[in-house]
Design a protein that fits this description.
Length: 433
């Protein structure tokens, strides 16, 4: 068994079709997604139950199996991606990150607290400095997680890779965020472009290097709906804030019903447009940036639709919310019945004699089971109705042009990356899949 294999992986994959030969010229390769929602639901359910039964220990194996399932379902030109990550790597990386963060929390924070009380007679400065100190580590963890995922991903038998540079990325992210905040968000597209360029220009497939083309100004149109939403919200909220500021007392504030209704409508519509604008910005910038990437003459085209992505999130979270209500409602009933059983039911017109026969520890166990089942249902439904359709949509709207140039690409050395996604796991930076 090689180091890229693991006995804890997903079921045996389907036979991989052979790569196109030079005698089979192709103008482009289409992306497709062959996974089935029912199989994902079953896999998420099994791995989720095992994660709960092992008190979270199995989640490293759960993530590995889910990622292998997703990767094997994505095909470009009929050839699937391969994920060869090892859950033991994730576990060891998590333990290393926990030790380092424990030192930061236990020693650095203690010194900050001592200095804060000595200089400022309070703990606010210590909490602020501690929070600011975690921010670069958060960006560092993002870059390291991406590096690990790429290092354990293959296509056509060739490894992806990301060059070291996590601290450089963290420092650039901090500087761009400061500029974005100082300019009230005007330079947000600039931050998006240059952070993506930093990562893309250090990414490779085999011995072929990716490059991010284009200019940061090309991302300004992606923010149009977000800007419109903020403008509408400001138009509705500014009169309310101004009237409240000028009034000496709440009783002095007099609104005509028509004015109040108009301002409330502007705030409501502005909030909806701003929310949609956030999704639109994320999808449209990804589409524009992907179209400007190049690798040895190979170009990528992504035709993802922002409205489709917005609908997936809206419908998926709605279904997940209603699924979450089932165990939460049952848990509330158990708690209520237990309380009635403890105080007696003389004042209640209910037949709860059966409740007194139940052992209190049994009720606690039932309640704990319902509590964890709520997290399980949320995880399963978000995987099935959000992550699954998003992966399928992005895969089916991806096209690779000039694929003949891929024939000259050769293998790259293996990136050991012993820390895996440890910091991303410990800090929860959104690297679940």
């Amino acid at each position: 068994m090689t180091r890229d294999q693991s006995p804890w992986g997903a079921p045996k994959p389907e036979p991989v079709p052979t790569a196109p030969t030079p005698s089979e010229p192709q103008d482009h390769l289409e992306g497709e997604f062959l996974g089935r929602r029912g199989r994902l639901f079953g896999l998420a359910l099994r791995t989720g139950v095992l994660t709960i039964l092992t008190l979270g220990f199995y989640r490293f194996w759960m993530k590995t199996r889910l990622r292998r399932w997703y990767w094997s379902s994505i095909r470009v030109g009929g050839l699937p991606l391969e994920y060869v990550g090892d859950p033991v790597e994730k576990l060891l990386g998590f333990l290393i990150a926990v030790v380092i963060l424990a030192f930061y929390v236990g020693v650095v924070n203690l010194l900050l607290m001592f200095a804060s009380f000595s200089l400022f007679q309070g703990n606010f400065a210590a909490y602020l400095a501690s929070f600011v100190g975690v921010i670069p580590i958060w960006f560092y963890a993002q870059y390291r997680a991406r590096r690990y995922v790429l290092a354990r991903t293959r296509w056509r038998g060739l490894r992806f890779g990301l060059e070291p540079g996590a601290w450089g990325y963290a420092l650039r992210a901090l500087m761009h965020w400061v500029l974005t905040i100082v300019t009230a968000g005007i330079l947000w597209p600039r931050m998006t472009f240059y952070l993506e360029k930093y990562k893309t220009d250090r990414t490779s497939w085999g011995n072929a290097q990716l490059t991010q083309g284009g200019r940061w100004q090309m991302l300004f149109p992606s923010a149009k709906w977000f800007i419109l939403g903020v403008f509408l919200t400001a138009c509705g909220g500014a009169p309310l804030v101004r009237a409240g500021y000028l009034a000496n007392d709440l009783s002095d504030i007099n609104f005509e019903p028509s004015q109040f209704g108009l301002w409330f409508l502007l705030i409501f519509v502005g909030g909806l447009v701003t929310t949609f604008g956030g999704f639109y910005y994320r999808v449209d910038t990804l589409r524009r940036l992907t179209g400007a990437k190049e690798m040895n003459g190979v170009r990528l085209v992504l035709k993802a639709r922002p409205m489709r992505v917005f609908g997936i999130h809206l419908g998926g979270y709605t279904l997940a919310f209603f699924a979450l209500l089932v165990p939460l409602t049952m848990m509330m009933f158990v708690i209520a019945f237990a309380m009635v059983g403890m105080v007696g039911n003389d004042s209640f017109d209910l037949d709860l004699e059966w409740l007194s026969a139940l052992d209190r520890w049994l009720l606690i166990v039932i309640n704990i089971g319902l509590y964890f089942s709520a997290f399980l249902m949320w995880s399963i439904f978000t995987q099935t109705f959000i992550t699954f359709p998003l992966m399928r949509h992005y895969a089916e709207t991806l096209t690779l042009h000039n694929p003949d140039a891929l024939l000259a690409v050769r293998q790259r050395p293996r990136d050991e990356h012993i820390e895996a996604e440890g910091f991303a796991e410990a800090l929860d930076v959104g690297a679940s899949i």
